[in-house]
Write a structure and sequence with these properties.
about 0% strand, mainly alpha, single chain, about 90 residues
Length: about 90
């Protein structure tokens, strides 16, 4: 059990800037969703913006590590739009 935790710790230490950028984007997303509560169009635009940010962040993160492949890009696109769909369904009925 100690080995997976060490791998995660090393990954975060090696890519601290990338993960801080992702967490900062997530915090701004949550703040924007709270500010625009009740405004369906602005909430959807915020969700769409965060989904796009996540996709771009994933592509950037893997391109800096020389691990960018078409399969990885498709994975981030599918995850981003899945998150968009679920949050749209849950938060903006």
């Amino acid at each position: 059990m100690k080995q997976p935790l060490n791998l995660i710790k090393n990954q975060i230490q090696n890519n601290l800037y990338d993960y801080l950028l992702l967490v900062t984007g997530g915090v701004f997303f949550l703040i924007a969703m709270n500010v625009f509560r009740g405004e369906r169009l602005l909430e959807f635009i915020t969700l769409l913006t965060f989904s796009g940010f996540y996709i771009i962040w994933g592509i950037y993160h893997h391109s800096t590590e020389d691990g960018l492949h078409l399969k990885t890009v498709i994975e981030y696109i599918l995850i981003g739009f899945t998150i968009l769909f679920f949050l749209k369904t849950i938060l903006i009925p």
